[in-house]
Amino acid sequence: MPAPRKFAREQLQAAALALVDDHGLAGLTMRSLASALGTGAMTIYNYVDGREGLEQLVTEAVMAEAHWDATPSMDWDDEVLAVAEGMWRAVRAHPHAIPLILTRRSLDLATLRPAEALLQALARSGRSGTALLVAFRAVSGFITGYAQAELVGPLSVARGEDLTTITDRIAALPPEQFPKLIEIAYAAASSDPTAEFRAGMRIILAGLET
């Protein structure tokens, strides 16, 4: 009989995600994960297949945090919004992991579960086949793109900065060249990210209703 496994996968996921949250992707290595778990690096190789396996732990951990409230009585567009917001909140909570979410092909259950929920909600609009695929990619792209825009867009806030600093920096640009960028910088100073996300999703949903 094989020896019992020392660490549950959930422990590995939580430790890997905590390292990325605190130190970025470069801070996640076999050695750092082993240290966080109080074991040796060689032990981790019994659980994780190299760098790809480390990254999979992170994406699984992020997407496992996607939760939403949806009921059968909801209209399809309200259900799509609920699932999309749950996915966005999970991704947004871990900005250092966003590059992995954007670039890593994941087929783990934690990633597939919200994807299937989103597809089921979109299918209630009467779409199937290619039309369903297009709608799914449009909404999925908005979710990850919106989270990424908060991280790397012109109005994004770097570590150690606050929104006032960014607003002041944009406001100092030549107004004759960047009038609209300055306008939205002032709007962002008092805007609520959740309200913004919902409003953006409503634009996507309005397009899907046509």
Keywords:
single chain; about 210 residues; mainly alpha; about 65% helix; about 0% strand; flat
Over all CA atoms, what is the radius of gyration? 20 Å
| Structure class | mainly alpha
The helix/strand series, from N terminus to C terminus, equals: HHHHHHHHHHH
Number of distinct beta strands: 0
Largest sheet data = none
Structure description:
The chain has helices spanning 9-23, 30-37, 41-44, 50-64, 76-92, 98-103, 109-123, 129-152, 163-171, 179-189, 193-208. With 210 residues, it is mainly α.
Quick overview:
The chain has helices at residues 9-23, 30-37, 41-44, 50-64, 76-92, 98-103, 109-123, 129-152, 163-171, 179-189, 193-208. With 210 residues, the chain is an all-alpha fold.
Layout of secondary structure:
Layout lengths: L8 H15 L6 H8 L3 H4 L5 H15 L11 H17 L5 H6 L5 H15 L5 H24 L10 H9 L7 H11 L3 H16 L2
Helix pairs in contact: 1-2, 1-4, 4-7, 5-7, 5-8, 5-11, 7-8, 8-11, 9-10
